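Pilot study result, target chain (174 residues):
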Amino acid sequence: MNTPALADDFIALKKITLLYVLVALFTIVSCQDDPCDGVACLNGGLCNEGSCLCASGYEGDDCATEQRTKFIATYNFNESCTGGEYNYVAELSASVGTVTQVRIINFAALTATEIIGVVSGSDVNIPQQYFAFEGEQWGIVGTGHLASSGLTIVYTLTFPNGSLDECTAFGIAQ
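Predicted structure:
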């Protein structure tokens, strides 16, 4: 009996067997259902393993809901600042900008002012911005969070003379 020839035949048989196993596994894996079949992700969302990954500004199972819609309301604000306590009504509405923006009107008890907030999930960021009030330039920057109890915004107001007022505002939707 020729032992080296038998060993070569055995190695060739192992390779062929491995090839058949790999072909069988590939066939089984490729026959599985695509988890994204029938999943429609709206507004630029993408399906991943059967779930939608939403584009910025959208949420929900199918990405159909704008995140900012939960912020849009008229709020009764109570706020505490280094300069005093204030109560006022402010309105958050859809901005004319991107789907992630909201307009905040009459915020900080400053009548007829408008600032822009940027929404991400349940958070709102008020980037540094300036606005006119009573003919003078004021500044504001802050962050906020929307919970079931209401909207909390922590911000810094810059007066025209450069002095600052640190504030925490809590608003309940009407």
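One observation from the pilot: Residues 66-173 form a domain with the Lipocalin fold (CATH 2.40.128). A full batch analysis is planned for the follow-on phase.
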